[in-house]
Amino acid sequence: MDSGSSRDEEPTDIVPGAHVRANDGGPVMTVTGVTRSLAFCSWEEAGNVHHATFARLTLRVVPAGE
């Protein structure tokens, strides 16, 4: 039995406070909330705060220092 997650399973390490990035790149964002399949994120760019909602499957956690 495989204990790893498949691409169709929602990531369990995407939790409020986690730093994430879209799988296809972009800024590092802070997760501000989650549902079963969505992550609510915010980030700062050029002095402006942005907010957006992403499917959790489209995000990856950014290791500290990246």
From TrEMBL:
Residues 1-21 are annotated as: Disordered. This is DUF2158 domain-containing protein. It comes from Ramlibacter albus.
